[in-house]
Amino acid sequence: MKLIFTILCVFLVQARTIAQYEQMLHKPYNEKVENIARLYQNMISLYVEDSVKANDYTYKMKTWAWENKDKELVLEAELLKAYLIWHVYGFEHPEVIKELITVAEKGKKQHIPHIEERAVKTIAAHYWNLKNYEKAFVWLLRTAKILEKMDPNKFPNMAGHLNFIGLCYYHFGDYATAVTHFKKASELQKTSFNSLAVTEAQNTLGLCYQKLGNFKLSNKSFLQIINDTTSYANPIWKGIAAGNLGYNYYLNGDYEKAIPLLEADIDGALKINDFGLASGSTIPLADIYLKQNLLKKAKEKIDESQKYIKQSGQTERYQKLYPVMSK
């Protein structure tokens, strides 16, 4: 029975995959981006289950695209195949990245920027995951140059790709450079496809300004998320932004404003079992109560912080907790 169920699932995935690429014929990228996203999700599942069948489908997709004279869809099939191989084998066999590099160069030569950009971004992620940061930044610079020439309306992935560049600079503490990328992403018009990426950009832009000591602009970024009344408002991100705004008030010594925001962040984090996020707000709360000489409350928050850090496994958060404990 289990075998029959597995075969049926694979068959349904295959059927959906075929229908998806047939619906993409001669369509501009922005009109087929959601179909492409689902295609990749389905194909990853199929490739893990049966790589031979997955490769066969990418071949059929490419052949069908050629027969219907859609050169862009032909290259999409090549990108899909290269991506699947990288997704499954890229970490253990880094040499498979050559397939994506080939596709990137074809995208450039054939003047199909979204193909080139998506391949280049994946190549940058590949080297970043391998901690080969020198090569990663070479490809990041290329992806940034490509994005500068692209119309966001024609490339719905713009926010996510800008965020990736920004996060790489953020990782190394280059907050000023990170700001330029997050600012561009945060100002993009939200759609059903990019709303989460734009919201993430607004939040991380606020964190960059926080690191740079510009609390006015930092607060503005967080309030964009908190005060969002559109259909794209996200309660989880609202809670995260509220906690970050509360941390700004904490840093500025405005404890009365900070406390309710940090408490709300903890409640929201626990609802989604994000214990790392919860510990991020219990630590400044413990310090606030310590400074207010509310020692019992401070001890409660210290104990909570230790519990949440242990549950999350994010031991680097002890760097902020230990100084509070030592007081």
Automatic annotation (TrEMBL):
<keyword id="KW-0963">Cytoplasm</keyword>
<keyword id="KW-0677">Repeat</keyword>
<dbReference type="InterPro" id="IPR011990">
    <property type="entry name" value="TPR-like_helical_dom_sf"/>
</dbReference>
<dbReference type="GO" id="GO:0005737">
    <property type="term" value="C:cytoplasm"/>
</dbReference>
<feature type="repeat" description="TPR">
    <location>
        <begin position="159"/>
        <end position="192"/>
    </location>
</feature>
<dbReference type="InterPro" id="IPR051476">
    <property type="entry name" value="Bac_ResReg_Asp_Phosphatase"/>
</dbReference>
<dbReference type="Pfam" id="PF13424">
    <property type="entry name" value="TPR_12"/>
</dbReference>
<comment type="similarity">
    <text>Belongs to the Rap family.</text>
</comment>
<dbReference type="InterPro" id="IPR019734">
    <property type="entry name" value="TPR_rpt"/>
</dbReference>
<keyword id="KW-0802">TPR repeat</keyword>
<protein>
    <submittedName>
        <fullName>Tetratricopeptide repeat-containing protein</fullName>
    </submittedName>
</protein>
